[in-house]
Amino acid sequence: MSRDSNTRRRIPPGIFLIKSVRGKDWTLKSYRYIILLLTFIAYASYHASRKPSSIVKSVFYPESLKNSKVNPWPVGNVFIKEEEFVSFDRNSVESQGWYPFNQSDGTSKLGEIDVAFLACYSSGMYVAGHLGDTLDLRLFLTTGMIGSGIFVGLFGMGYFWNIHVFWFYLSMQMVAGLFQATGWPSVVAVVGNWFGKRKRGLIMGIWNAHTSVGNISGSLLAAAVLDYGWGWSFIVPGALIASAGVLVYLFLPAYPEDIGFSGVTDSSPNLESLSQAEEDRTQKGPVVKVEKSSGIKEGSGSRTGIGLFEACIIPGVIPFALCLFFSKLVAYTFLYWLPFYLSQTEIGGEYMSVKSAGNLSTLFDVGGIAGGILAGYMSDKLNARATTAATFMLAAIPSMLLYRTYGSISRTINILLMVIAGLFVNGPYALITTAVSADLGTHSSLRGDSRALATVTAIIDGTGSVGAALGPLITGFLSSKGWDVVFIMLMVGALIASLLLSHLVIAEFAERSHKSVPSSHGQQTDEATGSQPLLSNQR
């Protein structure tokens, strides 16, 4: 069969249909916008489906919950109805909790639920990364999203089926975690396939806002339907991610070669001329046949993946992976426990409702959006990924200390300090999981036809997700001893994360100080430090 027929088989059905009706192809720039939008929606839905467990914690374990008589935050009753629950309230869940989570060991069980999800997520990440570099990314991502939606929804069905068996909820979270592991390696690999290194930090910093947008939308969705039974707080986000999976199947081209483009990354010297040429051809003719070189890569079917060991020895992978371990430990503790912390903490002399706490916690992610963009911009401007990440992690320490110390004075101060903490905590987390992973996955030490983006991303984010699993678990035990102990753990984690990058930071400073040295000597220095291939924008 001809190469055109093979390409037609790989092209997403939605794009194939639109091209057939439209009669002409889109430009490279248009496809890139589509890639950014679809991967943004995809991973935002992944994060939205992870938020319900943090929202319903105080419903499962409401023993120390105190209600405020003031209007709920943030704007009167715009986001939150007055505290009156609907009549079909099963087993008086809101006042009595949900067995087995409403017992004396309730917070520990909630922590175990979180760690079960994240342990399967982190272990599945290593396998998912290699599979993502071997299989069709579009089909792989679609399967993961629909599977995630099914098992997140099944967790919520425990409410309607009146299930009070701990192992049911534990197993649903574990299987959901395995399916969720497909997401991050896949979306980073897709974006890395379509975008080169130029301004990668800024582009991916903006794109990485999907994490915070997903957290915010997941919190708002789960809180909005909480009055109708906590089960809906899982079913609605589950339906959202499954629907997004269908969208990905229909419209996401995982590789430029899948739709006829070749050589579109910054490793090609003619990137901009290629993009402009395609745009000119599209404007001049009603039907554009995309030029294929004789050595065109077959996109979804021809490249070979690399092994985990090969990926681990790429310079910089291990330090950034260990840094992300502690960075995600801090970030995911906020992700899973911040709404619970807010509902159990007196702020301005009042205790807020579960729904108010859920809505207020979204502002941490608002700060995270700004942090991801700022960290990406700074790392591009300074050409120093490690220095930027380490600086943000160090700044996160005083920001968390201030939040714990002064956040209870008033809601206004709590909001301000929460946004600042979110900026510094999520900034390096966003940078390492996006731009750094993509840089290392296209490292110059790789052989030309190797796929390493998903594998490297999986190693870095998989290691980080082990920390993400431990943080919420440890918090479940430490919170019974007081929240001061929890915040000490978070600050120590942030300090270790920054120290783990110290060698790479020194290498970046050494590289900058030798820029004025003649190129022959400069090349020698770069090879000695290993910093040039890792952190420079040159391929």
Structure description:
There is one protein chain. The chain is an all-alpha fold and 539 residues long. Helix content is 69%, strand content 1%. It contains 24 helices and two strands. The chain has a two-stranded parallel ribbon. Helix 8 runs antiparallel to helix 13 and helix 16 packs antiparallel against helix 21. The protein is globular and about 60 Å long. The protein starts with a helix and ends with a helix. The N terminus and C terminus are likely disordered. One of its GO terms (biological process) is phosphate ion homeostasis. InterPro entries: MFS, MFS_dom, MFS_trans_sf, Sugar_P_transporter. It is found in: Membrane. One of its GO terms (cellular component) is membrane. This is Major facilitator superfamily (MFS) profile domain-containing protein.
